[in-house]
Amino acid sequence: MAEHLHDDRFDEFMKNSLDQYSESPPDSVWEGIEESFPVGGIPFWGRYWWAAAVVVLLAGAFVYQHTYYRQKLDKLEMQLKIEKERAVASSDSGGAPVNPLTKPSENAGNTDQSLESTIANAPNRSTAHPSEEMLPEKVTGDKRRATEQHNAAPPTDLSGVKNDKAVESPGNLVAERHPLNTTGNEKKSEKAVASPSPVAIEPLDIFLKYGEASINLELPPQQLPSREFWAGPAVGMFSSHRKFSGTSGTHHHGGGPHPHFEAQTTTSGQSVSAGLRVERELTGGISLCSGVFYNESEFSSTHTPSFKLGESMPGMHGFEHDFQYSLYTPSGSATLNLRVEQVDTSVQVSPDENIGLTVGTSQKFRYVSIPLGIAWRTHKGRLGFGLSAGFIGNFLLDSGMSVSNIEVQNPMFQVHHEGNSSFASVNTTAPFYLELEAAALLNVHLRQGLRLEIGPSLRLQLTDASADPQNGSSGYAAGLQSALMYRF
User: Fold this and answer.
1) Whose C-alpha in 115, 187, 357, 452 is 20 to 30 A from the C-alpha of 122?
2) What Cα–Cα distance (Å) separates residue 156 from each residue in 170, 181, 199?
3) Are 300 and 268 in contact (CB under 8 A)?
4) To which H or E segment does residue 458 belong?
5) CA–CA separation, 99 vs 92, rounded Å?
């Protein structure tokens, strides 16, 4: 079988089969792929990766601060809770700790005595016996009555004190006053207490001073530091104006491109922003503000170049004239190829006759905006007022331009009706520009930890929004912004 493979023209068959699979696809395949690609510039993440890195760093910093200070606050709140529980437990026990020398029944009786009644029943030091100076002011129960009997007893002979030393110890006195002791030793106990001997009083004084007296300290509430973190959605609507100074148009004719006129073009439009706003309270009602916003703007411009009939492109004959005009707008430059025709062909028109065009353009911008500023707030009840100021960095995502209308002001001419005009734009928008913002805020506290903010805002452009060195720009925006902030 192997000998007859070549006879059946097997090699030729394999070669023809493999030739059908070319390494390079036909041109129609590439054309289909190119048509499927969206028209636009380089993606944002490729051109402005550093802007995304700044956003990630800011978000990480705020998350770290929120976690760190929240742990600190939780720790302080736990310490305050423990101190309050200790103070409540001390006040419930009447300020007297448990005496290890007495039985539980006597300790239960002592806990019912309050600190205020003890102070009110304390003896007067002005008439007390000199040995009473060693007694504390806070004495409760039987010890107070024993001390009064001691003060009322007349001086006795000190010679009998030595024989009663064993009875005068604190332990014996406590045992004799116990409620279960009914042997009649209480009288003996009172006799021992009535002795004015310093040797007999000193242990009792020490026992009363360190065993019974206790001060109930009510700790004042601790003022926790205000480091609250607020975050929430925010939206804004603005009316924007931009003014471009420099070369507004370049006219092309037989001798090449020539600047046609110098002018200032004012562009007006609207802007809408939406995003996340975050705040960190510092001290004294002052907060650090930032966030991330998506900003979309749309502007409209009107241009009035003054073409002369003799400045048309060469090569045209009869009553049709072609003009090429480079127009500079906030989003870049646009080249217009325009054909006009004479309305009345029986009239001889001078080459110095002005065509008088009015060209309207529309520009759209999309930005990622990152504000950074300081806010001050004060409130009374549920209403509050605040002021804020800071900077806004605008990072360009995309921009586009289109011609909205073309009109001829000179009645002797009109735009050719056969779709003669063409349009090509070059994007010269700056990838970044900076703004200064100042705002007033009205705060409404809806409930604990939730507030609504609304107020006017003014933005001034600090850097040029156009990358074309021949055209400088300045502008401002005024509008209303609001936010719903939640405290974490």
Assistant:
1) 187
2) 21, 27, 15
3) yes
4) strand 450-461
5) 16
Domain residue limits, the chain: 95-212, 227-487
CA atoms within 13 A on the CB side of 307: 31
- What letter does residue 382 receive in the DSSP assignment? T
CA–CA dist 190, 170 (Å, integer)? 13
Looking at residue 152, what is its pLDDT?
A: 53
C-alpha to C-alpha distance for 461 and 391, rounded to whole angstroms? 10
Q: How many CA atoms lie within 13 A of 416 on its CB side?
A: 15
**Angstrom distance (rounded) from CA 253 to CA 98:** 109
Q: Which residues pair with 466 in a beta bridge?
A: 429
> How much is the pLDDT for 38?
43
Distance CA 80, CA 68 (A): 19
CA distances (Å), 310 to each of 299, 318, 348, 351, in order?
33, 13, 13, 4
Q: Which residues of the chain have pLDDT under 70?
A: 1-11, 13-54, 66, 92-227, 244-266, 315-318, 330, 417-425, 470-471
- Residue 23 is predicted with a pLDDT of 53
Hey, how many other C-beta atoms are within 10 angstroms of the C-beta on 100?
Answer: 7
The rounded distance, in Å, linking the Cα atoms of 458 and 476 is: 7
Reference 249, options 262, 231, 264, 236; nearest CA is: 262
Q: What whole-number distance in Å separates Cα of residue 462 and Cα of residue 473?
A: 10
DSSP alpha helix (H) spans, 93-165? 104-111, 115-120, 142-152
CB 132 within 8 A of CB 208: no
CA distance 398 to 367: 7
Distance CA 68, CA 488 (A): 13
Two tokens, residue 223: 């003022």
**Mind listing the pLDDT tens digit for each residue in 309-353?**
877 777 666 678 887 777 777 677 777 788 888 888 888 888 888
Beta bridge partners, 247, equal: 262
Predicted local distance difference test score (pLDDT) of residue 155? 53
* Residue 261 near residue 305, CB atoms below 8 Å: yes
Nearest to 229 by CA among 438, 72, 394, 78: 72
Query: Residue for token digits 């045992």?
Result: 175
pLDDT digits (tens, 9 = 90+) for 367-390: 999 999 999 999 888 899 999 999
Angle made by CA atoms 65, 67, 68, in degrees to the nearest 5: 65
Cβ 473 vs Cβ 461: under 8 Å: yes
Distance between CA atoms of residues 263 and 251, nearest Å: 14
Amino acid in position 352: D
Contact 279, 230 (CB under 8 A): yes
Return the closest-CA partner of residue 192 out of 213, 162, 219.
162
